[in-house]
Design a protein that fits this description.
The structure is a single chain. The chain has about 400 residues and is of the alpha/beta class. The protein has two domains: about 40-175 and about 315-395, Rossmann fold (3-Layer(aba) Sandwich), CATH 3.40.50; about 175-305 and about 400-410, Rossmann fold (3-Layer(aba) Sandwich). It is about 35% helix and about 15% strand. It has helices spanning about 40-50, 70-90, 110-125, 135-150, 175-190, 205-215, 240-245, 260-270, 315-325, 335-350, 360-370, and strands at about 60-65, 100-105, 130, 150-155, 170, 195-200, 225-230, 250-255, 275-280, 300-305, 385, 390-395, 395-400, 405-410. The strands form three sheets. A seven-stranded mixed beta sheet has the order 7-6-8-9-10-13-14, with helices on both faces. It is globular and about 65 Å long.
């Protein structure tokens, strides 16, 4: 595999959220989803009967993500990093003098279960939502947070529609930004002259990145020689897609997909003797944690990410040390995004002088303005800011897997 010595800095929008925690646990019996009704009627009712202010003198942050199942590496990292951030914040006096509680719910990567989890957390008294972790789930939940005027910050929901509403912000790069930046990196660094694409046409995350990658590729000095899709119903056998890329002479295969499917693609490519450069985005982060996966197959794999665990700054080193003491694994980008999300919540609350006795709606209104006025130096970027659209500004890094670990591409 090739190794590269140029780091591309691309300014991209990304929102940071802060989640604070003293304890975290899932519910075994999620509440039933709200009865269906026209969105306008539900929103009007919510305004008339806004969620009551918390009677406890604590801030309550909810977190939703896949804590079990095929995408658990994402949700667990978000949970554990949020716990670390909350512990730190509480140990240092809390937010505006108030302690913070964190409660986590498992959505198993299912949009309806994510909505159920939201209802469970709302019943608990949640005032801020760190989640959902994945795009489709985050979009589904945002329909509910809009009605309730609940502040929502997704650490890693990258689809454009995740931030459709003014109460939703994000920490991660958006899909268009990831697709564009990936094409620019490959072209500007002359990584390959011929490129194949394998993507999930049934997933908004994957198809969104692919579309913008193709658009930007027209401006770069490489040729897309194959572009093959799969769906959620056909994500175990990739022999056809790989064979077409191989026959077309693709020197690089772009994989804007999640790590579980990517691990199968790498195994099947190896079995057929196909050894291209593989290049992914943030969904690839977690491939080294796949059970029974031979990580040597990922040697030389590249991805764009805002976080590298081998960075030498003090904040990253301390976070990685604490994370590994807690879980014995190296944190991924999703954990870093969650940690930054919690600290973004803290910064915005302090900017607006928010207190726990305020109603959920009043907190959200104050947060909408405060998020556009803060600057956060976090794990995923220094000097992060947010626009009213919910999009952040941050700079990604290119990393490569070497000797079973992520290292910054130099």
């Amino acid at each position: 595999m090739k190794k590269f010595k140029t780091i591309v800095s691309v300014t991209m929008a990304a929102a940071m959220s802060m989640a604070l925690l003293t304890g975290c646990g899932g519910s075994s019996a999620p509440a039933a989803p709200a009865a269906s009704a026209p969105a306008e009627a539900k929103e009007e009712a919510a305004k008339e009967e806004a969620p009551a202010a918390s009677s406890d003198a604590t801030f309550k942050i909810g977190m939703i993500g896949p804590l079990t199942g095929g995408a658990a590496a994402y949700g667990q990292a978000v949970q554990w990093a949020a716990e670390i951030a909350v512990d730190e914040i509480n140990a240092n006096g809390g937010i505006n003098g108030y302690q913070v509680e964190l409660k986590c719910e498992d959505d198993e990567l299912d949009a309806q279960k994510s909505v159920n989890a939201y209802n469970t957390l709302k019943d608990w008294g949640m005032q801020f939502l760190n989640g959902s972790v994945t795009s489709a789930c985050s979009i589904a939940v945002s329909e509910e947070t809009k009605i309730d005027n609940m502040f929502q910050i997704t650490p890693s929901g990258s689809a454009q529609d995740c931030t459709n509403y003014d109460n939703v912000f994000r920490v991660c790069f958006s899909d268009p930004a990831q697709g564009t930046a990936s094409a620019q990196y490959i072209g500007q660094n002359k990584v390959a002259s011929t490129v194949g694409i394998i993507y999930d046409s049934s997933d908004v995350y994957s198809s969104g990145i692919m579309e913008n990658f193709v658009k930007e590729a027209a401006n770069q000095d490489f040729e897309i020689v194959s572009s093959e899709a799969f769906t959620a119903d056909s994500k175990t056998d990739f022999s056809v897609q790989l064979q077409k890329a191989k026959d077309a002479g693709a020197e690089l295969v772009f994989l804007p997909i999640y790590y579980t499917e990517a691990s199968l693609i790498l195994q099947q490519a190896d079995a057929m003797g196909y050894d291209p450069i593989f290049f992914g985005c943030d969904g690839m982060d977690g491939i080294l944690t796949v059970e029974n996966f031979d990580t040597s197959l990922a040697e030389g794999l590249m991805l764009l990410t805002p976080f590298s665990a081998d960075a030498e700054d003090e904040l990253t080193q301390n976070f990685v040390k604490t994370f590994q003491e807690k879980n014995s694994i190296v944190p991924n980008q999703f954990g870093a995004d969650s940690y930054d999300a919690v600290y973004a919540i803290k910064a915005a609350c302090e900017k607006a002088n928010i207190t726990p006795d305020m109603s959920v709606s009043d907190i959200c209104e104050a947060m909408k303005t405060a998020m556009t006025e803060i600057t956060v130096d976090g794990l995923t970027s220094v000097g992060m800011t947010w626009e009213a659209s919910g999009e952040p500004t941050k700079t990604p890094k290119a990393v490569i897997i070497e000797n079973g670990a992520y290292v910054t591409a130099e």
